[in-house]
From TrEMBL:
Record domain DHHA1: where: 33-111
EC number: 3.1.-.-
Pfam family, one: DHHA1
Gene this chain is encoded by: nrnA_40
UniProt-recorded name of the protein: Bifunctional oligoribonuclease and PAP phosphatase NrnA
Amino acid sequence: MKLIGEAINSLEFHFQSKIASMIIRKEVFETVGAKDEDADGIINLARDINGVEVALLFKETEDGKVKIGFRSKDFVNVSDIAQEFGGGGHKRAAGATVAGAVENIKERVIESVIKAFSVV
């Protein structure tokens, strides 16, 4: 439950609230004794918000990387976006792992998602 609370506390909306993003920092995983897989499904909380087309979940890892989860409802192919960051998946669910600071990665990913809306 603490992971969910932390994710919801970090919830932000972008691009006329069509994009929702959340971050779970590595310290949170350590503090609550949770593993990466314990966060599975949290991204769906953001995707299920009315008006949100794309949900993003950024999870910091212990080795200085960020795992990105991408989910979409109807229009945006998140697999294409994940591929830009070395990942992959399906049209509506994808993922990638990127080295770097979560804030910088988040900014770059959101820019890519916004560009994807112009293709739709």
